[in-house]
């Protein structure tokens, strides 16, 4: 058992297969497809927002406390890996959310903030802004900060400020966005 649980890829594969088995076993095909995309949307959303909170509540505040000789472990190994999952989770959260909205029949109504779809629409627009921030503000600037892209010290300092502001904007938006997503079925 220790060998199995020591292999994250194997654990994730077995978990995925188990989830698919449950999805396939419980309902009509239409419900299964929608259920599969809802589950994927939730999975990627938890990964995305979890990493957003990790960066904002753990990594960024702790960086000044890390000895200089240990900082490359974070900037060369941990941060690039976490940013990989962060940006792809953002993209897949948005894609699967749009698929769910389409399959459920409210995509256009939500995006135009039609009455009855206001909460989910606001949540969707906040998520779209947040995903934009991830791909077009946080990621390009973090590449400079982490030395993945050539940048002089002033450019790195400027990039760090932009990335931090975009990340904090996403943290701010995540709270009302999550409220909208969780309570959208209550109307609005």
From TrEMBL:
Protein name (record): Urate hydroxylase PuuD
Keyword Transmembrane in record: yes
Keyword terms of this UniProt record: Membrane, Transmembrane, Transmembrane helix
Organism field: Parasphingorhabdus litoris
Domain of life: Bacteria
Pfam family of the protein (one): Urate_ox_N
All copies of domain Urate oxidase N-terminal, residue ranges: 119-183
Chain segments annotated as transmembrane: 7-30, 36-55, 85-105, 117-138
